[in-house]
Structure formats: C-alpha cells, structure tokens
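Narrative summary of target 7.
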Amino acid sequence: MCGRFALSAPQAELMPHLGLDEAPQFAARYNITPTQHNLVVRHSWQQAAGGGEVVAVK
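Modeled conformation, tokenized:
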C-alpha cells in the first residue's frame, strides 16, 4: 500500500464535524499521494476544544 487516499466529502459537511468555523476552499480529490501538499486540521492542547487550524502539509 502506498498511502494514497481520497477526499470526497463536501466541505460544508466536514467543517462542523472538524470543529472549524472557516477554512480555505477545497475541491474533491480522489488520488491524493503522500508527496502532494494536503490540508490538515491541526489541534493544540493549548487551544480551546474544537478550535483547530487548517494548514497545508506534505
């Protein structure tokens, strides 16, 4: 397995589930590789519950 994954859920559906009020727009992607930049939700133990930030990582 090479670690590829897909992101097909609508953004409006993901935002409340991840505890986010805002995030960069993104489109569905069906063949995401580990070498591509991807949006992730980063939470810190210092942040209030549900208060994450969206960052692009590789």
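The chain has one domain: 5-57.
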